[in-house]
Write a structure and sequence with these properties.
Pfam families: TPR_8 (PF13181). Keywords: TPR repeat. The protein has 1123 residues and is mostly helical. Among the domains are: 108 residues, Tetratricopeptide repeat domain (Serine Threonine Protein Phosphatase 5, Tetratricopeptide repeat); 136 residues, Alpha-Beta Plaits. The protein is 55% helix and 3% strand. It has 44 helices and seven strands. The strands form two sheets. Strands 2-3-1-4 form a four-stranded antiparallel beta sheet. Strands 5-6-7 form a three-stranded mixed beta sheet, with no helix packed on it. Strand 6, helix 43 and strand 7 form a beta-alpha-beta unit. Helix 8 runs parallel beside helix 10 and helix 32 packs antiparallel against helix 33. The radius of gyration is 41 Å and the shape is globular.
């Protein structure tokens, strides 16, 4: 035959063999051939693509992640919220590929077993498995790990929970899944759930192949629970497991931080030194050197400071000067030298080129020092800048935010007092001394401006030189690059505008040049407007409005042409214009001092709890400025202050002053009240009880009782927390008794004294309606009856008014539970609902969401019903649960379509829908079939048949790599797996499966591939058949003779002379052994691990060196080690 004919025949034979293999490898069959084929196809097709995507995502996250070395490093980069989006696209691709591998290659069908054959413990374990593809657990693990590292911890918890149930009989896989499940709980902050998983695994023995993952889990758990001493031994094991140098450097740095936390400075120093020896990226190395100086500062402080100054002089560290000086300041603090520490921190703040977390930590530490030294102006500056640089998840962020808020309120008053005191001192000085003091201020201002200009010029020059270095020679490319450069010099690429200190300084200067120094308050450029106009405003004519505009424009033009000398801070006239010389100017200055002393004293006393400074400010006020208009308030606060200091004599002295000087003051009435002590202790509870009784009396039309309780509130609790409510309900009570004038008076008082109250807008609308000519009418209504309220009114647009409820039943429905938040234990209800859905409806996924409407009701919406029948069946079964029924005594349940839900509470009230439901939906008959036991979508999985193109591709490449997700998973994230089909057996109730007889090994160098036997009967016969009598043993001298593959599969294979009939052994394929039982090692007849046969004595040593590689589908770390 010719060559092309031989090739054609070989091609046809290959096609026939391939079609035979593919046709016999359905997931509905569970044979050795089908398991091998699906394991092989899953590994080198979809799983391979998912692995590549996972590794790319891991590298992207590793390279893009920026650690915050001022805090304890997270064990995993995903522990930092700023890094969770890195690599997310590739992680999602890995998840998709894993889902596809599971969907296409999962073998759920239980293998058949030969009747009469005794089952060992391993046999029973193997038969009780729920997944028989020996490789597919890796796809599950890849999917869970990708979800974990992408920050989708809920999905990871679901994956690993299901995986631990699926592989419960296989300890190595089960242990890994439980370890990752615990890590998913830990990263979510669910430490109790993680502890439960850990405790259960400690009760059981952890498989040795899963020990590595548990070392990571224990480390992460003990770090999150702040048990650092327990975390250190496991972290040292993790470092031994780690294969990537950068991650190992991070872990050594974390080890040093843990040693430092338990005050083992020498071991921390050694750990930081190991970081440097690994030659990590410069940022990690630099921070390790900084940390080394910190831990050794106690014994070698001066040496460490000199070393840090040398680091500051190095050009490589020009972007890390804030950290260098921060370390220097910490060393000084350790030496109890606070002044030098402050100088070092200020130098670091001044020379910082970045506005990041490191600078924020420095400013926070500096602000704390100023706070402790009672330099609140400097503390305000530091806190105000640090609060925008630090993460809100820091433990000390709340304290810093509270302090910053208090100082924003305090410092303007203290600065005003200090400035006016200084100006008054200057006014009393001789002219020569005054001018000399002003000249010193001007000189200091010019020096500061020169330093800032030099710094800006240096940064600008550095940026221009860097731009010139990066500028291309091509003019077109140069122009393109110039257009993409930032508008502000010195701004780094990809950096936010306000992180550039030079840009911020330029913006501040430009703002102050245009607007001057303004107080940092909301709506600083607007005039405050109240809700209600208390006086009738007279409408002005167009002529009058024009004249007013002309006058305002004239005044603005005069204000825009000030004296140039008085507006220039470099001239004496600028400062002389602020000094109070005349009596009127001195009086205005004293007024600012008095106001500042009062407010500062109250803030010191109540918010800073600094009674010493509060006493100092208030005592100065009452002693130096007796004409202060609110002196009674000052006496009242001094009484409270001395009461807290347990000095009753001084406290009672200020009560006597109130009685003498202000007998009619409300504070005098309050302090002389015989119930003052009782009100101070129990006043809040008493007032709440009186208001509850007043509200109930109003609903019951007992208006006399309402007015009596309102009078008690006015006389006994004039400053109570419910005073605004008493005014409103008392006014309505007077209206129902026919006194509309007194009702309006109470509403006016409510608007004037309590503009921040929630009732103030409602009272204002009533007043405006009366002023517009409407009449007040009394009537009974329930303020708390939210079920009959709606937000839309009759005057709304036609498009809203025309919308009505729909009676369509074949649309998406929701079961909604509405309740007052204080009438139902919401957390327990949510838990019960979730547990009920999870246990009762396995094939359906319901979304449970809790929202709040405009009337204060909480709405628990259970969505996912395709029609009215499903929703009503669920609601009926739902209310039959005793645990749930007891929680829903004070709640209302609605079965409502999504279309009608949009109108509920806006166009229509809850009562309106209740009536509509009773009329249109209640009479409907629903299906008696249990609809919720069926999934929302049912997909049958058809076994695809290879086309001719696919066969050609398979023959050319030996396999094919999938480049896209052809079969998308369901929207719910579940997988439709083929159901098992029970086959009745005709052999004593059992099912017979063919068991292949071990073939005799061939040393001829040929590859022997065992083929599953064919049979024409419905029940396949075993390979070694029941007819063992016809099988003859081989002669002893033919032990190593080669055997041919039988051409008729129904014929039993020849057995060895010493054969164990019930023991299966892995087959030898060339020089590669492939076996499918996890945790089981291939052994020969002697019980030792099985190796390849040696051909001759000549190549014995060569064969010993190149032992056959065992492809173990149970070892995950050959694929993703280090990731």
């Amino acid at each position: 035959m010719r060559l092309w004919q031989l090739r054609y025949v070989a091609f046809l034979i290959q096609i026939i063999i391939l079609l035979f293999l593919v046709s016999g490898c359905s997931t509905q069959k569970n044979t050795a051939r089908s398991r091998w084929w699906h394991a092989f196809n899953a590994r080198y097709n979809t799983y391979y693509n998912g692995t590549v995507a996972y590794i790319d995502a891991s590298l992207e996250k590793e390279n893009g992640h920026q650690d915050n070395f001022t805090e304890l490093l997270p064990l995993y980069p995903v522990g930092s919220k700023s890094s969770r989006e890195l690599g997310k696209a590739n992680f999602e691709r890995a998840v998709e590929k894993s889902k596809k591998a599971i969907k296409l290659h999962s073998i759920k069908k239980r293998p058949e077993w030969r009747s009469g054959k005794r089952k060992t413990a391993k046999d029973r374990e193997w038969l009780n498995r729920k997944e028989y593809n020996p490789f597919l657990w890796k796809a599950w693990m890849l999917m869970g790990r990708a979800q974990f590292h992408s920050g989708a911890f809920d999905e990871a918890v679901s994956t690993f929970s299901y995986m631990s149930r699926l592989y419960q009989t296989q300890p190595s896989i089960y242990g890994r899944a439980r370890a990752w499940l615990a890590k998913s709980y830990i990263e979510q902050g669910w430490l109790y759930d993680a502890e439960d998983v850990i405790r259960n695994m400690e009760r059981d023995s952890v498989h040795w192949q899963a020990q590595k993952e548990w070392d990571y889990t224990y480390t992460d758990y003990y770090i999150h629970t702040k048990e650092y001493a327990k975390a250190i031994p496991y972290l040292r094991k993790v470092i031994k497991h780690e294969m990537r140098r950068r991650q190992k450097a991070r872990q050594y740095f974390l080890l040093g931080q843990l040693y430092e936390a338990i005050n083992q400075k020498e071991l921390a120093y050694q750990a930081y030194r190991r970081v440097i020896r690994l030659h990590p990226p410069y940022q990690i190395e630099f921070n390790a050197r900084i940390a080394m100086t910190k831990v050794m500062a106690g014994t070698q402080g001066h040496q460490m400071i000199r070393k840090l100054h040398r680091m500051a002089a190095n050009d490589n560290n020009k972007d890390y000067l804030d950290q260098v000086y921060y370390a220097i300041g910490n060393i000084y603090l350790g030496q109890k030298d606070t002044l030098r520490a402050i100088d070092a921190f200020e130098e670091g703040n001044k020379r910082a080129t970045r506005s990041g977390i490191e600078k924020g930590v420095l400013l926070l530490k500096l602000g704390d020092l100023y706070w402790n030294r009672e330099k609140y102006d400097d503390a305000k500056r530091c806190y105000g800048e640090a609060i925008g640089l630090l993460d809100k998840d820091r433990e000390d962020y709340g304290q810093m935010a509270r302090r910053s808020e208090i100082l924003d309120e305090l410092v303007p008053y203290t600065n005003a007092v200090q400035l006016q005191d200084s100006l008054q001192v200057l006014a009393k000085m001789p002219e020569a001394q005054r001018n000399a003091a002003i000249d010193r201020v001007i000189k200091a201002l010019k020096k500061k401006e020169k330093e800032e200009a030099d710094l800006l010029a240096m940064q600008s020059t550095r940026q221009e030189s860097q731009d010139d270095f990066n500028t291309p020679f091509d003019p077109q490319e140069r122009m393109t690059k110039r257009n993409t450069l930032p508008n502000v010099n010195g701004q780094r690429s990809g950096e936010w505008y306000f992180y550039n200190p030079m840009a911020v300084n330029q913006g501040k200067t430009a703002f102050q040049r245009l607007w001057g120094k303004r107080e940092n308050v909301d709506n600083w450029q607007r005039i405050n407007k109240t809700v209600v106009s208390l006086e009738q405003q007279q409408e002005l004519s167009e002529l009058q409005l024009d004249s007013i505009r002309q006058q305002e424009n004239m005044e603005d033009s005069l204000q825009q042409v000030p004296d140039s000398a008085q507006s220039d801070p470099h001239q004496r006239a600028f400062y002389l214009a602020q000094i109070p010389f005349t009596p009127d100017q001195v009086a205005a200055s004293n007024q600012l001092i008095m106001d500042g002393l009062y407010h500062a004293g109250v803030i010191f006393k109540d918010k800073l709890d600094n009674l010493r400074l509060g006493e100092k400010a208030l005592r100065r006020l009452v002693e130096q400025y007796p004409t202060y208009e609110h002196m009674d308030l000052a006496y009242y606060h001094l009484y409270l202050l001395y009461s807290r200091l347990h000095q009753p004599t001084l406290a009672n002295g200020y009560v006597q002053r109130l009685k003498t000087q202000f007998p009619k003051s409300e504070w005098t009435v309050l302090l002389t009240d015989p119930y003052f002590q009782e009100n101070a202790k129990l006043g809040v509870h008493i007032e709440d009880s009186i208001y509850a009784a007043t509200y109930n009396a109003f609903k019951a039309d007992r208006y006399d009782e309402v007015l009596a309780n309102t009078h008690i509130s006015e006389t006994r609790f004039p400053l109570g927390a419910n005073r605004d409510k008493f005014l409103f309900i008392g006014g309505l009570g007077k209206l129902n008794r026919g006194d509309a004038t007194q009702c309006l008076a109470d509403l006016h008082t409510l608007v004037e004294k309590y503009p921040e109250s929630k009732l103030s807008p409602l009272a204002g609308m009533i007043i405006n309606g009366v002023q517009a000519g409407r009449k007040l009418r009394g009537g009974k209504f329930d303020i708390g009856d939210v079920w009959s309220r709606r937000a839309a009114v009759l005057s709304d647009s036609d498009s809203i008014a025309k919308r009505t409820f729909s009676n369509e039943r074949n649309t998406n429905f929701t079961v909604m539970i509405a309740y007052h938040p204080d009438s139902v234990n919401e957390n327990q209800l949510l838990y019960r609902v979730a547990k009920y859905n999870f246990t009762q409806y396995v094939v359906r996924n319901f979304d449970v969401v809790i929202t709040q409407d405009d009337f204060g009701l909480h709405l628990m919406k259970i969505a996912g019903f395709l029609n009215f029948d499903e929703a009503l069946q669920y609601a009926r079964a739902f209310h039959k649960q005793r645990a749930l029924a007891s929680l829903l005594k004070h709640a209302r349940t609605f079965v409502i379509s999504d279309v009608n839900l949009e109108l509920l509470g806006t166009n229509f009230s809850y009562d309106d829908y209740d009536k509509y439901y009773t009329k249109h939906f209640a009479p409907l008959k629903i299906s008696t079939f249990q609809l919720l036991t069926e999934p929302t979508e049912v997909k049958t999985q058809a076994q695809p048949k290879p086309t001719l193109e696919e066969v050609d591709r398979l023959l050319d490449d030996a396999t094919f790599i999938d480049n896209g997700l052809e079969n998308k998973p369901l929207d719910s994230g579940t997988y439709v797996l083929p159901e098992e089909v029970d086959k009745t057996s005709n052999h004593q109730g059992g099912t017979i499966v063919p068991v292949e007889q071990p073939k005799k090994e061939s040393n001829s160098g040929e590859t022997v591939i065992p083929l599953a036997p064919r049979t024409t009967s419905k029940t396949p016969l075993p390979a070694d058949s029941a007819k063992t009598k016809s099988t003859k043993p081989l002669p002893a001298n033919a032990k190593n003779s080669p055997q041919k593959v039988p051409t008729q599969p129904v014929q039993p294979a020849k057995a060895k002379s010493k054969q164990e009939p019930n023991k299966q052994q892995p087959q030898r394929v060339g020089e590669t052994i492939i076996y499918f039982e996890d945790g089981k090692t291939a052994k020969d007849k002697t019980g030792k691990p099985k190796t390849a046969d040696k051909t001759t004595d000549k190549n014995k040593k060569k064969k010993k060196k190149a032992e056959p590689k065992v492809i173990d589908f149970g070892d995950e770390y050959y694929d993703l080690e280090g990731f």
